[in-house]
Specification:
The complex is a heterodimer of chains A (about 290) and B (about 300). Chain A has about 290 residues and is mainly α. Chain A contains ten helices and two strands. Chain A has a domain at about 65-240: MetI-like fold (Orthogonal Bundle). The chains are: A mainly alpha (about 290), B mainly alpha (about 300).
Chain lengths: ~290, ~300
């Protein structure tokens, strides 16, 4: 009788425990869905052609957000320009060339630390090095460079993982056919690892596109009457614009705020969805 | 032909190697520039006034204690939310959820990690803060608590993904052994799987906390930005100001090279060192446990 009681008790505990954990997981996930739906619903009515293709006027209280959209596009492309080649090359080094020694461990430690540095500290660094020391000024160039160092760890670690997932046999065969190491990497391994690398690159750039703190003092402008003309111009950007109109501009129409949040969210979510689709399609197609 | 090929190979190999080492260079550069702009603080403000409780730069009061306590209380609150919910969600995803549920939950949590913090801050101002003000009957909803709630949400994806990896890497045989001895799945989770994944879960907690300390925009938007010393638990319900928010809010308005400018870099230096310590400890925990696992296997 005692054992019967105990065993019933055990299973009651399990049922209670599982329910509690499930509720916790729901509490974690439901706000995410809620947040996204809320902004989609609230911001939807603000979206129009004028809003997407016009300049702000009346102290940003009317008009569109074109310069912020274009600015975020420029910053994302600028970041990609620097961080993609460097990040993939670093990943190739770690996956294909590096031996497991003290230096390699130091590189890995450096990458982990780069990933953990607060975004506002990147902003300070960008201000110190790119804006002031190298005299790029508050510019797209300085902001892109700052953002690209911030995205490096994401690109390096995901690309390295993708390269390592390519079976060793691919390398052995290629080398035995007389290819050099670089020919093997550039023509065989990179091609096989491409979907994984692409996923990592997009996820890294997604983060860069949504960041505000690193561009605050390196490239973001409060308001500009025209689109930036060169990499040495400052630019408006969606995340900074959302920050400005939700905290710095009194009597800001709520519609424009929700609309801006929606455009930023769609920009970032689209990148996220593309990355997820590439990853799952590559997984389904993979034959090794 | 042969010769040019091997030259090309040589140059490309060097380029790739240099890129690999660039990560070390960047960490060193970041540290160097923070020191270069931050250390002059010590010549201009003496240590006693730096450790004062008054932050009022216009009148040359540069006490950073209120900013440190502000960061601490917000981060502590965030950890109290992110740790149980993060680990709970990781346990659910890795041990309890059916396969189809897992396929939905994992991308969703990843999505949360990708949401720009400025969007969360925006919702914090418009939705969370007014709700807290009415619900808790506070003079303002822009409080440390609002910051903690948002930061908790921002730190959760980090905790979930690292903890879930740790749980996933516990060998299946451990669980099967426990089941064979008559343990329920719940007992197995608590007494076998979680203890076996302990070091990874600890890493998850540390990285989550590190993420919370460094978060800037969302915190700046919802904590009310009052640089007051936050020492009692009651401070959770009043406005505070964190180190990150101070830098972000004030750097745009200071003259380059002024004392205020150097102090802000000094705060950045402190943040950098905190994140360095957190990450080095976290990665050495993982490293040690891996070595132990190798010992067991050999």
């Amino acid at each position: 009788m005692m054992t019967k009681f105990l065993s019933r008790n055990r299973h009651t505990v399990q049922r209670l425990g599982f329910s509690a954990i499930t509720v916790m997981a729901l509490f974690t996930v439901l706000p995410i869905i809620g947040t996204i739906t809320f902004i989609l619903v609230k911001g939807g009515s603000a979206i129009s052609l004028d809003f997407l293709s016009g300049f702000p006027h009346d102290g940003m209280r009317a008009g569109g957000i074109l310069p912020a959209i274009v600015g975020t596009l420029y910053l994302t492309l600028g970041t990609a320009f620097f961080s993609v080649p460097l990040g993939i090359a670093a990943a190739i080094y770690l996956a294909e060339y590096a031996k497991e020694n003290r230096w390699t461990r130091l590189i890995r430690l450096a990458i982990i630390n780069l990933a953990g540095i607060p975004s506002v500290v990147y902003g300070l660094f960008g201000l110190g090095l790119f804006v002031l020391f190298l005299q790029f000024g508050t510019s797209i160039l300085a902001a892109s460079l700052t953002l690209s160092i911030m995205t490096l760890p994401v690109i390096i670690s995901t690309s390295e993982e993708a390269l390592r997932a390519v079976p060793q046999a691919f390398r052995t065969v290629s080398i035995s056919l007389g290819a050099t190491r670089w020919q093997t990497i550039s023509r065989i391994i990179l091609k096989e690892a491409l979907p994984g690398i692409l996923t990592g690159v997009i996820l890294g750039l997604e983060r860069a596109a949504g960041e505000t703190a690193p561009i605050l003092f390196t490239g973001a402008a409060f308001f500009l009457p025209q689109l930036p003309q060169s990499p040495f111009d400052a630019t408006m950007a969606l995340p900074y614009h959302l920050f400005v109109i939700s905290t710095q501009v009194p009597e800001m129409p709520i519609q424009i705020q929700y609309g801006t949040a929606l455009v930023l969210l769609v920009f970032v979510l689209t990148m996220n969805v593309i990355a997820t689709v590439i990853r799952s399609r590559a997984r389904a197609k993979r034959q090794w | 032909m042969e010769k040019s090929l091997s030259w090309r190979e040589f140059i490309i190999t060097r380029l790739i190697q240099t890129s690999g080492y660039s990560a070390i260079l960047f960490v060193a550069l970041i540290f160097f520039f923070l020191l270069r702009e931050g250390l002059p603080t010590l010549g201009q403000v003496d240590a006693a006034s730096l450790l004062n409780i008054r932050w009022y730069p216009i009148e040359n009061y540069f006490g950073i204690l209120p900013l440190i306590t502000g960061s601490l209380i917000v981060t502590l609150g965030a950890a109290l939310i992110a740790v149980p919910f993060g680990i709970g969600t990781a346990v659910y995803i890795s041990e309890i959820a059916p396969r189809w549920m897992r396929e939905i939950l994992k991308p969703l949590v990843e999505l949360l990690g990708g949401l720009p913090s400025v969007v969360l801050g925006f919702l914090g101002i418009l939705v969370l803060a007014p709700f807290l003000r009415v619900f808790l009957d506070l003079p303002t909803g822009l409080t440390a608590l609002a910051g903690s709630l948002l930061l908790g949400g921002i730190a959760v994806p980090t905790v979930v993904s690292v903890a879930e990896d740790a749980l996933d890497s516990v060998p299946r045989a451990y669980r099967e052994g426990a089941w064979a001895l008559g343990a329920t799945r719940w007992q197995t989770i608590w007494r076998v799987t979680l203890p076996a994944a302990k070091s990874g879960v600890l890493t998850a907690v540390m990285l989550g906390v590190g993420r919370a300390i460094g978060e800037t925009m969302a915190v700046m938007m919802v904590t009310g930005n009052a640089p007051v010393l936050a020492l009692q638990p009651g401070s959770l319900f009043s406005p505070v100001r964190t180190m990150t928010a101070t830098i972000a809010a004030e750097m745009g308005e200071v003259a380059n090279g002024s004392t205020h400018y150097h102090v802000l870099f000094f705060i950045g230096m402190v943040l950098f060192i905190i994140s360095l310590v957190v990450n080095i400890i976290a990665s050495s925990v993982v490293f040690r446990s891996k070595k132990r696992a190798e010992r067991i296997l050999s």
